[in-house]
Amino acid sequence: MSPFRTPQVAPPCIFCANLPPPHPQPRRFQSTTTTKEEPFKSPSAPDLAASQTHYSFFPKSLPAGPPPHAPFPIDLSALKREFLQLQARAHPDMHPQSDKKRAEALSARINDAYKTLQHPLSRAQYLLSLRGVEVAEDETAKVDDAELLMEVLEAREAIEDAEREEDLVALREGNEGRIRISEGVLEEAFQRDDVERAKSETVKLRYWVNIKESIDGWERGKPVVLNH
């Protein structure tokens, strides 16, 4: 027998024997180039500087822009849908902290554009302002029309003398008809780019809208103030 004994190797643990062989670790190479972070871009919302008019904010619902390139009437349902989509993308909470002020300014401009275009009177006033004619805040912009002024005074008396809302039904219907007529005249005037006629009719429409607001806000005994 050899004086040297062969060392006995202990049998492997049953658990270790059934372990899968270790996977070779892939070699990692460190890139020598640095990745430049892309600057934040607003998600397809209209650019604040690029929008030249209120119409520019709504390319889907108002693709042709303002009159005379497009009609004066607006599809209000389409305008509202696009407005909500734009506000969702421009909301400050959707932007990083570094871009919140810009997002707030953009959101405010979109909101102002929508409110202006939503109503025929403010829309007409805005379109005239694009042509250098200010009638929205011009207290001297009045209609030299005795018949119209008489209608306005009679409407005021009827509203003040009303005992109940039912007394204003006929006045309301007649005034709504006058508003529709004015809107039709404005459509034709802006289509022809007739600024003087558009200005005169916008002032008229302001009277009818004020009467409408007085009827809508009627309370028994409440004095009526018709701004013009």
UniProtKB/TrEMBL annotation:
Q: Does the keyword Electron transport apply?
A: no
Q: Alphabetically, which GO biological process terms does the record hold?
A: [2Fe-2S] cluster assembly; protein complex oligomerization
Report which residue ranges the record marks as coiled coil: 136-165
Q: Which UniProt keyword terms apply here?
A: Chaperone, Coiled coil
Any one GO CC term of this protein is: mitochondrion
The Swiss-Prot or TrEMBL record annotates one GO molecular function as: ATPase activator activity
Pfam families per UniProt: HSCB_C (PF07743)
CDD domains associated with the record: DnaJ
Q: Where is this region: Disordered?
A: 17-49
What SMART domains is this protein classified in? DnaJ
- Ranges for domain J: 52-122
Q: Which family does it belong to?
A: Belongs to the HscB family.
What protein name does the entry list? Co-chaperone Hsc20
Please report the organism this UniProt entry assigns to the protein.
Ophiobolus disseminans
